[in-house]
Specification:
- The structure is a homotetramer of 247-residue chains.
- In chain A, 42% of the residues lie in helices and 17% in strands.
- The first copy, chain A, is of the alpha+beta class and 247 residues long.
- Chain A has a single domain (3-29, 76-241), classed as Gyrase A, domain 2 (2-Layer Sandwich).
- In chain A, a hairpin with a 6-residue loop joins strand 6 (124-126) and strand 7 (133-135).
- In chain A, helix 3 (58-66) crosses helix 9 (233-241) and helix 7 (191-201) runs antiparallel to helix 8 (215-231).
- The longest helix of chain A has 27 residues, at 139-165.
- The interface between A and B is large, with 52 and 52 residues.
Chain lengths: 247, 247, 247, 247
């Protein structure tokens, strides 16, 4: 479907309950960690490690992760395309060791695509600040939540359109749009920054420092984690073994 | 008014057309630039400059700004409290050389305070991508915009309350809230990062590189600029003279 | 002593076995952590915490450090003047979340002040890569080391002078100077970055992640740590309790 | 030659007058700038630009560079191996938006390879602080400089060996070594950070902001610039056209 066709359909409101993460490109492999680490003891001879099989150096990677020698993990680069609600991007962009470009509500008429929770999303928070956990909601809670989100989004987008049609600037009209609106961005990170992101934005048994991320950013993080595991399996294993602490 | 009283009133929807910027604390003076610069030629003797009158060194500060020797401007710190709509914070937090803490929609029930443009806000965008300018809207455009923003916000907040009352978590319910909702944050920056922020987020005659910020973030930037001018008048003058380019 | 007098004496070679750390200025107190953290749950009411007594909020600070909520520790600023050998500055400046200005060998004739280890400095490394420890050297080892360092430095400085006297640029002549030459710098860091620095550049019992810094940068770090403890005693206590991991 | 053979020869002192820069790997092309920029107006349709021919979008890249929209240049990564004297690395590592790993004088016995200026290196500085320029030295100046550098380096390395042979740690012995000693490092940067580096570390006619780098770091920068031009020719052209200012 071309961009123009897409534009024609764009006024039909869409509700989705998932996020999208695609690897756009990468320059990241386990062997990158090896030569970066070896330069400290081998100087220029470390160049011999470029592009070699990293599997025989698993011990070195485990050591670096465990002892928190983080800099050798930085000579890597992964670029992801992410489509997720604005409230997820608000949390994501607090991570400063990364590069971002995002869709703009100033330069573009935004599309009516909104996030609603799926039935699997635990809706009810129990506990107190600092130690919340989430449990399932009832069917009634779920239906009410979805119905009211849809109602709000529908009115907001109708009003957005009406303000635009009156000739007012996009950057003013977008004020009405809710934080559950989807946006698109590219983010580029190195493996060290990504491990820091994963340690904070996923909730896992066995993490040295437990985290309590919002489920929707965790959905993004889980997809990034799967890609990371594929690109750098030994590094990923070391991250797991060392309690999911970014080195 | 105490925090508790504030809480009781919090369900009454408020619409405001201004932003708030307060200087919380600072460690920033023109003389800080002097000793930081002088260490390069004077070593430890530069300590003699700490706390001295910077006015006799105006030429040095102008030179540093003009020739873009930026590092001496970094040994300064300014912390601002800012209350502004979410769409402003979204742009603000793209500035990575800064420290942020913001009100949380996960940990707190958000207050119904929403931004609507004032009558002075130019509403209509003319030109094409890359060289937009803004002109006044008609009274009709203004009234329609304000009416529809208020309508959307009112429904959104009503639905937010209804979802909360059904026992669903704040982090889920807030999905309906629009980006024109006010939030609060602290931001700490040094003078170099602040000059970069000002160069990009204000639109001024005589800027070497013209910028076209959204008016609402410019409203924040103007208030920060006035505080900066008061704290570091010579540095501010040098910034102006050198075409408002961050050194 | 004036700068000029200093300059006259500057050709007499000095050997020192200590480093200098002075707090130039700071904007850093435990209460800064409180309001920065409280904005998440209290919004603008957190402003009431500015400048208050932090001692009643020790539990909050301990919680933030233990659970690694690091951002509230960033709204602080400490500027140190440091005089130490070049090989220490080489390690120090690998810390990127900091601002630096240093004495310049391009813009200034460098003074003949050189570091030699004191008798207390353990000279002999035992163990293997990744788990070295240091033990005392013999008197013979110590005397030989000091004698040879002094001999090298003396010739280097004599040659530096001779190249300068021949009319060659300082930036060329300084090539001969050894990394044990003292330099001076200002560094400005926030408390979070400082805790990261301390966790990596000191070797302490009870650290969650043990570090093996070179003794000379640890001498700098210990002096910075003492100043930090005085400025932010509750935060410092929380850092200690949580295993000296930067939050 | 194997690493071991290298080690055997390593005690023969080598003097060199050049630096080495090799591209280890990269993920950087002009089209990366296009999709990163287009996401602001095209959202997910920008994915269509991935891997396309950037030449038809030269105007967009020129616009981004000229108007200083820097973020689209960040989704790129270039890793260089660099061999250069320590005094060059001291300047290089002041650039904080980069990742570094360097040969270690703590973990390795350093090789006796030292930099001496070539006959082409202008030796004499004329002018005053802030506006220096360099002119050729005489043959006498050149010969004296080279002779004294060699003398100092030779004694320093002899003393380094003698301290090591006495059983003292490498990290102590290296104190005697001069800043003209070669070291090796990997540095990874994105195109935006690289343009900033080039704008400050090269001296070129037509630069909007003239810079006065030390010749030896400029030798490194020139080699990096040639590689950058080859990887991203349109971006490089835009950098040139916009006065060599990093966007």
């Amino acid at each position: 479907m071309s961009a123009d066709a897409n534009q024609d359909l764009s006024k039909e409101i869409v509700f989705k309950d998932y996020v999208t993460v695609e690897l756009v490109k990468s320059s990241a492999s386990d062997s990158d960690v090896i030569w970066a680490a070896r330069v400290s003891t081998a100087g220029e001879n470390s160049l011999d490690e470029v592009g070699t099989d990293a599997s025989r150096s698993e011990g070195l990677i485990n050591y670096l992760a465990r002892e928190r020698h983080g800099s050798p993990f930085e000579h890597t680069s992964m670029t992801f395309f992410i489509s997720a609600p604005i409230f997820v991007f608000r949390e994501f962009m607090r991570h400063r060791i990364a590069s971002y470009n995002e869709e703009s509500g100033r330069y573009r008429e935004l599309r009516p695509v909104f996030y609603v929770p799926s039935k699997e999303r635990k809706l009810v928070q129990v506990g107190k600040p600092g130690s919340y956990s989430f449990i399932d909601g009832t069917d009634e809670q779920y239906e009410l939540t979805v119905r009211l989100i849809k109602e709000s989004c529908t009115l907001a987008y109708k009003n957005y359109q009406e303000i635009l049609e009156a000739g007012v600037a996009r950057e003013v009209a977008r004020a009405v749009l809710p934080v559950t609106l989807y946006s698109s961005m590219y983010v580029t990170m190195n493996a060290r920054a990504l491990m820091n992101f994963l340690s904070l934005r996923t909730s896992r048994e066995g993490s040295h420092f437990p985290s309590y991320p919002q489920r929707e950013i965790e959905m993004v993080a889980e997809k990034m984690e799967a890609i990371f595991e594929e690109l750098m399996p030994i590094t990923y294993g070391a991250f797991q073994k060392s309690g999911r602490i970014a080195p």
